[in-house]
Amino acid sequence: MSADHEQHPLFMPLVFVGGLIFGFGLGFSHMAQPEIVLNFLQFEDFGLLFVMFGAAVVTGITFFGIKLVRSTAPFTGTPYARRLKTLDRNVVLGGGIFGVGWGLSGICPGAAYASLGIGNVAILYGIVGMFLGAYVQGYWRSARAEGDAPASTAD
Amino acid sequence: MTATALLAVAFGELFPNGISHYAIGGLLVGLGTVVIYLGTGIAAGASTFLESTLSYVSNLSRFQRYVSSRDWRVVFTLGIVAGAAVYAVTFQSGLVSSSLHQPATTGQLYDVGGLTLWMTEVQPWRLFLGGILIGIGTRVGKGCTSGHGVCGVGSASSASLVGVATFLLIAIGVAQLVQALGVSP
Q1: Which residue from B124, B141, B139 is spatially nearest to B54, judged by alpha carbons?
Q2: Which of A15, A87, A90 sits opposite B140 (nearest CB)?
Q3: Number of domains chain A is built from
Q4: In a domain, A155, yes or no
Q5: How far is A140 from chain B (nearest CA, A)?
Q6: What is the pTM assigned to this prediction?
Q7: CA B54 to CA B71: how far, in whole Å?
Q8: Is residue A78, in this structure, part of any structural domain at all?
Q9: How far apart are CA B28 and CA A22, in angstroms?
């Protein structure tokens, strides 16, 4: 995929506005507060279910409904498609590692960015950690991909 | 007690802070995703930003594959930070109020130049160590709470449903274990 699709003058402004609404929602729903996420995981307040599944219902209706109206996105020409990934061992392994981190800290990537926006400077410990973790797995997987020639781009 | 009253008590225990701000926030998270999807066809997740941003400073093949999307992912993330900041300036600072909104009951509120900001009390080591595991796990597992949880579940993707079930169950176990060990917050 080239970066040509980013040439539409409204592409970047739209992505920013989408992020703005997304981040406001994370602030309003208190998902930007790790304590609230931990309260959910400790069965003290089940409100998080409304956030995650409320959002999934909105995207679900759109992802399935838009295809009845048009087939490609106006700013990119990209065909509308559902977000489908291959189900393999990595989904379970990675999901498990993410689960340990989420349960330990109460943070996840989107909510961590939003947390910075509500003034939670301490979240930088978590964000720096995320970059370190992403780098470690990228280093390891890049080295492995170069080991098995030809380089695979699995997933 | 009548059945209705029992239900009300049970509801109050499950949702001690009510549900309106959770439901509205969730709809907005979905709306933000939908705005981007309708315009661009992209189902945006938040964790790819970690790897795509590393491509600016690292030549590793694992990061370079995201070069074509790295610019808009930075814009998306800046949008998320800015959107949360708009929340901080309005509802969190009391400039705007609504019965559907719930003020913060956790952490510490502090004041900077008339703005009310919020700070977590969760210990730094939990954030840092958790962050490292999240950086590894979300990238190996092909998504996080937004990519799998919102876009993937909305797509009825079996990989995402398995991913969400996995990280949700493990996170519940870990959070309860850490609590049982007396770590708080």
Answers
A1: B139
A2: A90
A3: 1
A4: no
A5: 9
A6: 0.94
A7: 12
A8: yes
A9: 6
